[in-house]
Amino acid sequence: MNAIGDILAPECLVLLIGERPGLATAESLSAYMGFQPRRGKTDADRAVISNIHRQGTPPEEAGELIARHLKAILERGGSGVGMGSWNVSI
Q: Does the domain formed by 2-82 have CATH 3.40.50.11240?
């Protein structure tokens, strides 16, 4: 995420990553979101929505949740644990 941010300088970035084999389901995705990802940012600076699959958070619901998180990230000007509690429900 940081390498992409260094090159493209986005305001916010979302990475969709397939889960590694051996977890609950091989069809699961996670969405990692970061505000102004750049060199030096850590996982603590990101938000994540995991368990995106049919038996977890359905993809349609996850899309809505990702959009709400992105809106909140942009409004707050940050993402991750330093942003305090989130109340982003769908």
A: yes
